[in-house]
Structures are given as C-alpha cells and as structure tokens.
Amino acid sequence: MASLPPASVTAATALVGVLGDPVRHSLSPAMHNAALRELGLDWIYLALPVTSAKLGPAVAGLEAIGCRGLNVTLPHKQAVARLCQHLSPLAERVGAVNTLLPLEGGGWQGRNTDVEGFLAPLRGEDWRGKEALVLGCGGSARAVVAALVELDLAQIRVAGRRRELLDAFAADCSGWAPQLHTLEWPGPREAEGKPLLPLLDTASLVVNTTPVGMTSTAEPSQAERCPLSPAELEALSPPCCVYDLLYTPRPTTLLKQAAARGCRAVDGLEMLVEQGAAALRLWSGLNDVPVACMRAAALKHLARDQSMAS
After folding, report:
1. Is domain 14-112+270-309 classified as CATH 3.40.50.1000?
2. Which strand ranges, in their side-by-side order, compose the sheet holding 131-135?
3. What is the residue extent of each domain of the chain?
4. pTM score above 0.85
C-alpha cells in the first residue's frame, strides 16, 4: 500500500519529493509527510520514479513548476551532480548529490546530507586515532569515507573486489582522505576472506556499504546472506561497532551476528532519518524539524512493509 498524502491538498500545495529508479519502496514519503503535517506546511512529498534516460528532463521540469526541493536516490546520485548549477563543497568532494535545493536565479544547488545522516549515530564517541574498515567501494562508500574523515580516525581501509575500482576510488579521495588505504577482498565465498582477518581484529568500526543481505522481493532468500564469512565474523569482538547501511530486513544477518558477539550494531534507518531531516532543514529554512516524528513514521511503515512481506 502506498503512503497516503496529507489530508488536504490544494492548488497552493507545494511539491517536494524523491527521484529514483526504483523508488516505490522508499520510506521517505512516509517520514517527510508526517513531518510536514507536524510543521503545518502546505507541502506534499512524493516518490517520483525516473529512469536514467529521463533524469535531465525530469530535473528541469520540476524546477519549472516550482518544486521546493528534491531528494535523490539510486541510481542517480552521481549523474544528478552534473545537472546542478552549483555544488556544495562537500557534494563536490564526494562526487554525489542526494539533495537538490532550488537556486534563486534558477537551477539547482546540489548538496549531500548522507554524510550528516551517517554520522548521527556515531556522534558523542571519541573515534580519534582508531581504525575503520569499509566494505565496498561504490558511491555510498565515498560518502562514508567523507564522514569518517571528520571523525579523525588514524586509518580508513576500504575493501573491494575489483582493483581498478579501488584504484579509482583511492585517486578520487587522495586529496582529502590521507589516511585512506584500499585492499582487494574476495568476499565471503572465496578464501574465507583471509585479507580481512587481521583488520577486523583491530578495527573499532566496520561499515557495510554493499547490498549483500538486503531484502529483495524477487529473491527473499538474499536477506539471509552476509557480507562477511564465518571466519571473518568470528574476528569481530567488543568494543567494535558494526554499521550496516541496510535496514531491510531489520536487523540484517550481519548485525544479528555482530550483536551475538557483543558488538554494537547500527543499521541504516537512523542515517535515512537524519539525512532526510537535514534536507528538510535546507528546503524549509527551519532549524527545528520533528526528527522524532520522522523516525516514528519510518519505523511504522517499515514494520508494516515487513509484516506484509512475511
């Protein structure tokens, strides 16, 4: 069942939304519309499915009709950056945009609130001098590394399966992430992941940016998969924090296994909520947005979706 719009939609109602492909599964309409009702804003937030081929016309058309702001999700975060008239320094560094803000003179400013969202559950702890291990080297990993640089870690290691992608990743980050190192990682099905074992022993933070273990309607059995092999899981121990950007299922197999070993387990739902709250602040100009309301709405719809899938 799709999220219902606010009770009253008029000719004066303003539009915000999320662009993606696919985007029907998004929790963003539920949490943003709950926040808009709480704030009393005459806005509506919609999920807007857009293919890569139609991204340019869609972005231009939404600007033309006075859209107040947009979120951008997969697979458009990098492509949409090239359609922006201006990028924030952080978005330019990461090379990905997840939030569009209309410019007064026309066009869009590209921002990245994923970094702020990722950091939210890690604030309040001293990470200086510690080590982090990031699984995967895609677009999400770039935002994660940008966030980890802010924590003043001694080492940030990124593990991926293809050397050419790792080399390109390292080159892109070389100017602003001097503590970054990359390594080839065969994954859980090959060689028991031996390259990771000594790193898991010393890492204070392990972040999964891969889709391994995500619930899939087409392949529900994929939810049982784990990005780490049994031997790698055995290397996890407190006080290591394991952070999975996935939140379907909740918890993922990785986080269940990490928690069973006494590690702190963090999923991606809080990142989703906090990046959305940061975007809403930008669009509305309000510093105080109802984060608790957004979280509750996201949890409610996530629980409903999971119960319908089971």
Report:
1. no
2. 180-184, 155-160, 131-135, 205-208, 241-244, 264-266
3. 14-112+270-309, 116-267
4. yes
* Fold match flag (14-112+270-309 vs 116-267): yes
Assigned token pair, 91 = 């978005």
Give CATH superfamily name and number for 116-267: NAD(P)-binding Rossmann-like Domain (3.40.50.720)
φ and ψ at 183, to 5 degrees?
-150, 145
> Between helices 139-150 and 163-173, what is the axis angle to 10°?
40
Greatest extent of the chain over all pairs of C-alpha atoms, in Å: 61
pLDDT digits (tens, 9 = 90+) for 42-83: 999 999 999 999 999 999 999 999 999 999 998 999 999 999
Tell me, yes or no, if 130 is annotated catalytic: no
- From the candidates 54, 77, 194, 300, which is the catalytic residue? 77
pLDDT, tens only, 19-38: 999 998 899 999 999 999 99
